[in-house]
Amino acid sequence: MSLVGLSNLSRSFIRVKGPDASKFLNGLVTTRLLPNVVKKKQHTISANEDKHLKLAEVVNLLENWGLMHEDIYDPENHIFVRRDGLYLMFLNSKGRVVNDCFQYAFPYHTSTDTLQVAYDEGPNYLLELSPKHSRPLLSLLKIHKLSAKVKIETSESYSYYYFNDTPEFEEWLDKIQSKYMATLDPASALDAANQFIASQEFISQALAKNVVGLAIDNRIPGFGVKIVTDIKVEDPVALLSDEFKNNFEVKEVPEELVTHRRYVNGLFETGDAPAGTTMLPFEANLDYVNGLSLEKGCYIGQELTIRTFNGGVIRKRVVPVTFSGPDNVSELLAGVDVSNIDISRVSEQKEQKSEQKSAPSPFANTASSPFGSSGKVSRRGKLGKILSIDGNDGFMLATVSDVEQDSMFKFEVDGVTVIVEAHIPEWWPE
């Protein structure tokens, strides 16, 4: 697989703008868009959180102020105010995932009069998502609009993705984030974005006027860079500056390669799962991919999400898997509902031990039943649920303890046995 690539992604965009845009979206997404620290008891606010109280002094929600970036695993508990985009999820009232997306402050920079005019219009956001989720999310946003002063519409924008799996690019990306994306207030954020564009360290001068959104893909640290334009760029390589191309290889690759790289690295997107799949945000690894704020206040699905996190017990997660057996698993499973495939262990002995562990109840047989005993032991549920397949790689929703006990599974289709090896990605927090 190529270590380097630039690709035009098939994505849909929704624009949300207006005086109430920040407050409106804050009530729907898993990331923070309001500057307040939510604590029931004031004396429980830590020293790190105390400095966040000053956000309300610098963030004017009626202006085009940007986005708040935070990482729940950051021991310093930093919150940066930046112009670049970030990853998040929309949940339903039951705390289940509706879809994931990237959110951008629009426009990223104001180096032209046209972009300055767009910036001056006030709060303005772009949501980038899988095309199959666009219409349902548009309907969801309009249902919740009520009296909010926002305008919700589709946007003709285009998504490009650059990746480079070399240590040199990782070092460069760290430098760029430290230099231009560690800002703490809206004015500094806009100034840094304009400086980054003017420096031509990444974006070409010729097409800078068309770049309206930019994001470092830190779902996996330094995984790539996302660029959003207001025109379709026929030669995506022209998006990147000569300075950057003198230092790093740049070549156009098909979108399928970007997708395959995600699968190989274990980076799941909700668009990978079959239509109608329901899962909790932690099952989709939201907490591992920088898409969650724990103290942002109320939003749809928040109660179950925070209760689950504080409870510390997240049994199931989506894990990457590798298939072996037939030459092409995708061909074998063409037309098959993969989510209904019966998964079993390769080692029957370990499967029996797993069932024995899950069968007994601590409250069982505390008293004899007057109706006698059936002698039956309740069996545990399915070992795993295949969600998607890309070549010989895929994603499976499984109990983490099962994978840690034994990562080898199997299933059978049309008399052909397929071996499934699950992996715990190295980038998951310990």
Automatic annotation (TrEMBL):
Cellular localisation: Mitochondrion matrix
Principal place of residence: mitochondrion
Residue ranges with Basic and acidic residues bias: 346-356
Region of interest (Disordered), ranges: 346-378
UniProt protein name: CIC11C00000005720
Bias (Polar residues): 363-376
One Gene Ontology term, aspect cellular component: mitochondrial matrix
The entry's keywords: Mitochondrion, Transit peptide
Family of the protein in this entry: Belongs to the GcvT family. CAF17/IBA57 subfamily.
Gene3D superfamilies: 2.40.30.160, Probable tRNA modification gtpase trme, domain 1
Family matches, as SUPFAM superfamilies: Folate-binding domain (SSF103025)
InterPro entries: TrmE/GcvT-like, YgfZ/GCV_T_CS, YgfZ/GcvT
